[in-house]
Each structure stands twice: as structure tokens, then as C-alpha cells.
Amino acid sequence: MIKYKIFGKVVEFQVEQSDKVIIENLKTQFDYYDFADQNAKTEILIEIVKSSVFNNCVAVNPSIHGEKENGFVARYRNYDVNYQIDEDRLKFTLTIKHTKNALLRLAKKINNIEFVSREERIPQIIVESILVPAVFFDLRKFIVHSSSFMNPDGEVILLGGTGGVGKTSLGIEFCTTRKYKFVNDDIAVLDEDANIYPNLALPKIYSYNLVGNKPLKKKIFSSRSLADRFIFELKKIIQGPSKVRRKIDLESVYSGYIKNAVKAGKYFILTRQNVEKLSIEEVSAELASKINFDIIQAEYSQFFNHLSWHKFNSAILNKNTILTNEKIKTQMLDLGEKAFKKMDCFIVKIPIKIDHKKFVKELADLIETTE
Length: 371
Fold this sequence. Notes:
The protein has helices at 20-30, 102-111, 118-136, 167-177, 214-221, 226-239, 285-299, 301-317, 325-340, 356-368; strands at 2-6, 9-15, 44-49, 59-60, 65-68, 71-75, 79-86, 89-96, 141-150, 156-160, 181-184, 187-191, 195-197, 204-206, 245-247, 262-273, 279-282, 344-351. It is built from 10 helices and 18 strands. The chain folds into 2 domains: 1-138, no CATH class; 139-203 and 248-371, Rossmann fold, CATH 3.40.50. Strand 7 and strand 8 (89-96) form a beta hairpin. By secondary structure, the protein is α+β, with helices and mostly antiparallel strands. The protein has an 8-stranded mixed β-sheet with strand order 1-2-3-8-7-6-5-4, covered by helices on one side. A 5-stranded mixed barrel has the order 9-10-16-13-12, surrounded by 4 helices. A two-stranded antiparallel sheet has the order 14-15.
């Protein structure tokens, strides 16, 4: 049993049979957070078990969705998650689908975008399929698809937009050359007062993020095996730079990271458009909230599908739902508009065809001079 303080909540991990490999992988990721008092009341319980959580469902409609008395089970490609409310806390039970054949395990590791095993992927699965969805149950918080950083003056900026638009590359520029501190990569957790709760999930660096940045590439691969480096280069050639990535730790690459909630100051929504040059224009909090919700809805479409099936199954079983898409939308739009009114919100127009190094340098300069 391990307890951490994550997104302002006491999160407890329980690992069946005290699997040492899983525990070490969990600690590699979650030890960046503060430990919670072991006597503190658990608000989110995460169990990792070997037996299938798909057992004893009261309904299975469709085949990848199982209904339970106090929640539901979502069947993803390589794992299942049971989402439920247990008394007055959220409880999530995770089952990883293991492969016994050693050669098949190796083949799947090579095929993985990060060259990691399923056991090594557990922390990422927990962040993306458990901890982030847990925010949807919180009446006081919402999520923003963004990377966030604190500048040397203490102001926190959010870089939002769809995947692959340049958020990570800008973050690398800010943190490695301009002394910004890391707050989160990919998903930010905020409340209506624009407080942002650090999401210390390890950043994912794609091959295209390393273009023209040899020092960063050297840091990423300095402690990795020859096989790891070879697979990275081979997949980059065969599948392209957007199909291969590696995670990086927060100490060796970034100039520091934030562990406690801080105020967010500016929100930049990055977009690729048919324009000749980079530009930034202010937008309303209402529009910023709507744009963010649309992005989140697309990014978490699998989870939202399960909520739709949960609603359908609950109706035919005559039982209450634990969460609905309608509730999430209402809550996110409301909290988002309140939070963004306390920030300065902008749309960033980026030429569809622009040199990557030029884009990073010029946009970083533009963002820093935006009032």
C-alpha cells in the first residue's frame, strides 16, 4: 500500500501479491509527487490485480463493456479497468493482459511506440485511463489538453491545442533554454479559480521533437541500451518520426518542476492554419472553454463511449449511473469559463508549412512578449 497526494486528492495504490516489478515501475513515476500520510483518508483507491475484472458482470453490452452494480468495466486493447464508487470514494481496479510467451512479449515490446513492456506501461495506463478520468468525477476540477510551464517571474502559461501541434517542442524550448519550470505535459488539471494542480506524468518526446536538438537526444539516450537506440532509429525510418517516442525523467532534462498548486496566467490555443506568418489574437473565456471541451471529447472518446454504454445498460437494468457525458460537458464548460475568465486566453495561428526550428524560436519569443 502506497499513498500519494495527486491533483489535490489522497490516492492509494494496492498491488496484488506485492509484485516488486510493478511497484518499482509505480515508484519511478509517482515518487515525483508528495507522499500522503498513511493514516489519511483515501479518496481514490487504485487496485492492480491479476484476475479479470470482467468477471461477475450483470450485463455486457457491447462485448467490450461490462456493467457492475456500482459502476462499469471498460475493456481496452491490453487491459481492463473497473470504474466504481465504493462508499464515499472512487475505486478503480486494473487488470493487465499478460503474454506468457517470451518471444511474443519481445515482439510486442519492439512494436510498442516507446519500446516498453506492458508492465512498464502500467504508470502511463494509470495516468491516462484512471487518474485523468477521475477528475471528471470531481465537482470542483476540470482538465485542459495542454502543456504548462512556469516562467522565471512565476507566471504559469498553458499551451493548448490538438496533438502534434507543437506543445511539447515549445515546452522543451522554454524549460531547457529559458529556465521555465515544468508543471505538466499533455493534460492540465485546474479548478474554477484557475489554480493548476501539477500533473507530473513523465513527458513523451517524439522523434520530431529532437530535430536540431542533439543535446536533448544525447540526454534521452545516455542511459539506454544499444537495442533501444537501434529500434528508435529503425522505427523512425520505417514508420516516421511521429510513430516513435521515449519518456524522459524530470530531473535530467527540465530546469525544475512544480509540485504544488499554482495560479495559471495565460492560455494559448495552438492551431495550424493557412496563414503566412505566426500571429496571436485574444479570445473570450467562453470560446476557450468550448474549444477545450471539444478537444477533450475527441481525446477521451473511448472513455466517453463507455459512459454512453453505461447509461444504456443502467437504463435497461433500472439502476443509477455513476457518471454521464452530459454531466461532464455541463461541468467542464461551466468550470472552464470561470477559470479562463481569470486568465488571458489567446488563439495562436501557425502556418501549416513552417520550419520546425523557426516555429519553436519565433513562437516562444512571441508568447513571451504577449501582454
